[in-house]
Amino acid sequence: MSSKRPKVKLVEPSPPPPKRTFFAVMLDFFRYLFAILWLVLTWLWRALRWLGIWLYRFLRWAVPPAARWTRSFVLWLLADRKRFAVALLFIAVAGMYVAYRAARFVQINSPINEHNDVFSQWFEGDPALAEKLMTIRNEPCPGAPFLLPANGFIGLYYADPRLPYSETHRHQGIDIFSPNDEPGKMPVVAAYDGYITRRTYWLSAMIERVPDDPLHPGRQIWLYYTHMAPADGSFSYIVDAFPLGSEEIFVKQGTLLGYTGNYAGAAGGISTHLHFSIVLDDGSGSYSNELYFENTVDSSRYLGMPVNYACAPNAAITCSPDPLCPEAILSAGGS
Fold first, then answer.
1. Which end of the chain has fewer CB atoms surrounding its CB within 10 Å, N or C?
2. Which contiguous run of DSSP H or E holds residue 24?
3. Beta carbons within 8 Å of 254's beta carbon, 6+ residues apart
4. What does the alpha-carbon distance between residue 257 and residue 235 come to, in Å, rounded to a whole number?
């Protein structure tokens, strides 16, 4: 029996695929990109169309009853002269109030307000002019217990109603702006002896407990410092001695806490400054909500400077033996 080895047919290897040119790669990239954009726009159009349909249905359901009710109400007012007169009086009073609020808003936030003129001068970028507007203190004013926590231009005052604040929601502290709008350069120091706390979620802020208010013995107050981080929030300008989660770290007046920044959380970047405020105790040994004006205290007498909106001069803030004027706007916390 003979055994023959089967013949093996040799298969030639297939040639390697040709190298793709840069043009072909870019063509595919834009093809996929436009496909994704088309898909997104298609879904966006469908969503807007769906919202439009439901909005139209809602208006068809809501407008006729509202129109009938309005017509009935107007006829009811016209049926009695007294009711009609009261309605006209109400409309007139409401109109006058709206006009008054609008006029006040324009007066407060327009260039005719001298405080705004000083503010504009600071942001013109003239170094010589900016230097004249700066308040520089390396020690407390005579007779005042607190040290100004940062040198710079005190541009927003306590009880300030200018934007982004208003007469119904006034500024709760003071804003000290840094020269050249440079973050991370101007030191921030402790205004008074106290105990520093920094919550685990406070990137740019810290609060200092002062057990005994120097102007109101027996009252505990808190000093709030914030905006000590860059606009993108990538790190903090607060010094390493006060890491996130710090509690009750004792500091002496003048201790370096960090540097001014321009961080405002989700609101994005702001001008480089320190926001400093005095916050009332909540009665249980913790601090009150600093966002509410009535929970804060005017710092004029603590700093020995006229930093109340009604008392501040249209120039650099300097020490004053009597920093509060009769027109000073104060919260329930006083001064």
1. N
2. helix 22-78
3. 147, 189, 190
4. 15
For residues 52-56, average pLDDT: 94
Could you read off the pLDDT of 247-291 as tens digits, one per residue?
Answer: 999 999 999 999 999 998 866 678 999 999 999 999 999 999 999
DSSP 191-232: SSSEEEE--TT-SS-EEEEESS-SSSTT--EEEEEE--S-TT
- Both tokens assigned to 328: 């000073």
Contact 206, 257 (CB under 8 A): yes
Q: Residues 309, 312, 317, 320: is their CA dihedral positive or negative?
A: negative
Helix or strand run (H / E) with residue 249: strand 249-251
| Residue 234, amino acid | S
Nearest to 170 by CA among 15, 332, 313: 332
Tokens 């000073």 sit at which residue? 328
Contact 171, 157 (CB under 8 A): yes
Coil, helix or strand for 135?
A: strand
pLDDT of residue 83: 85
Q: Name the maximum alpha-carbon separation found in the chain.
A: 131
Distance CA 147, CA 141 (A): 7
How long, in residues, is the chain?
335
Task: For the chain, report the end-to-end CA distance as a whole number of angstroms.
Answer: 120
CA dist 165 and 142 (Å) reads 32
